[in-house]
Amino acid sequence: MTIKGLKQTKALELLACFELSKRILAQKCFNNDIVKNPESLILWLRQQIGFNQQEHFMVIFLNTKNHIINHKTLFIGSLDVSVAHPREIFKEAVACSASKLIVVHNHPSGDVTPSEKDIELTKILEKAGKLMGIPVIDHLIINKTGYYSIIHSK
User: Fold this and answer.
1) What class does CATH assign to 8-149?
2) Which residues contact 142 (CB under 8 A, 6 or more apart)?
3) Extents of the domains making up the chain
4) Which of 4, 19, 106, 135 is the most buried (most CB within 10 A)?
């Protein structure tokens, strides 16, 4: 409403349009094999956490057909750090009977290059996933315009 000529009613209509587009992207994502078709997942994730000003750490829980069965933002950090712990991640995976998972976080700075901590966390999660029988199939870093796959960029 800070834009000249934009009143409350029009602003609410615009917000409703944005929410509708988020839901359409999510529906496309949830009904597809997101491993074979990751584009819709990336678009949806950008809308979910790509524009946030704090780091958000999200986990996407998949069934055996690579369809999303649940997703949850487990950790919210500061401007440049989020403390994720494997115990919380796998507790949620077991609770929703996930067969595999994807972890995602955003970099508010706009640079999707993984930090040493990001790479270290990925290795820990991969080991824990192997032990639990719930493999981590990717760790994505998202921003407004791009993404980086830590596991697939090895």
Assistant:
1) alpha beta
2) 42, 45, 46, 49, 50, 104, 105, 106, 107, 112
3) 8-149
4) 106
